[in-house]
């Protein structure tokens, strides 16, 4: 599942390649992705317009259209955008296709079919967007904020970082990496954390996510920026996918455990409960 750095990387790529180019045709091959609009309306509202700007709120991609409508996309598990030059490529799972005036095609591909598309005139009209929590790269995501959200919680810190109602965009990969970076044990509960711990979690969250952004995200499963490029952050992973390998800090073997049925990777020595 793409996390914040991957979604931002996709947005940077799309902004560079498709903005201000007229969309001459739209083909919806599978209408299950369209959540608040039927396929005819979707095609008609987008056709003959262009994308002005693309940005994200949490993990939602917002496409500002020249007619002032907004197309809102969530990639969920496996959603991807490809840009085909000149010719549409024969690819399995291309479900929504935007033909551009410069003969390129923007293709939405989704092998798991969990992605969503909405078209709205105001983002406030979309309840999914309204409930998105603060962005970890926002300056308002600081000690006071995180402390107020977690210091009474009996849930473990790994799960708290994944809770999209507290902070948006941190997923399973980055939660493990963040906790390793600040040497916090993933089993510690919110209420067990000291002031210094919470300050360090905020600092490490920003550090790790920015580093991942600089490296265009992480390619572990199928995430790719385009069909030929992939993210580079996997080279920087210190615990994720390193089960039974030596910790870069202390040579202890990295452990993999399950928390809320999702894998957590950590070093039981560096991230020992003090
Ligand atoms: Zn270690």
Concise structural overview:
With 274 residues, this protein is of the alpha+beta class.
Characterise the protein shown here:
The two termini are 33 Å apart. The protein has 7 helices and 10 strands. The chain has 2 domains: 4-130, N-terminal domain of MutM-like DNA repair proteins (Alpha-Beta Barrel), CATH 3.20.190; 143-266, Orthogonal Bundle (Helicase, Ruva Protein, domain 3). The model has no long low-confidence stretch (mean pLDDT 92). With 274 residues, it is of the alpha+beta class. It has a 4-stranded antiparallel sheet with strand order 1-6-7-5, with helices on one face. A hairpin with a 2-residue loop joins strand 9 and strand 10. Helix 6 crosses helix 7. The chain binds zinc ion.
Tally of structural domains: 2
Mean pLDDT: 92
> What is the helix fraction of residues, given as a range?
25-40%
Helix-and-strand structural type: alpha+beta
Question: Which CATH top level class of the largest domain fits?
Answer: Alpha Beta
The CATH superfamily of the largest domain bears the name: MutM-like, N-terminal
Number of strands: 10
Low-confidence stretches: none
Q: Can you tell me the overall shape?
A: elongated
Bound molecules: zinc ion
Main sheet strand line-up: 1-6-7-5
Which strand-content bin applies to the residues? 15-25%
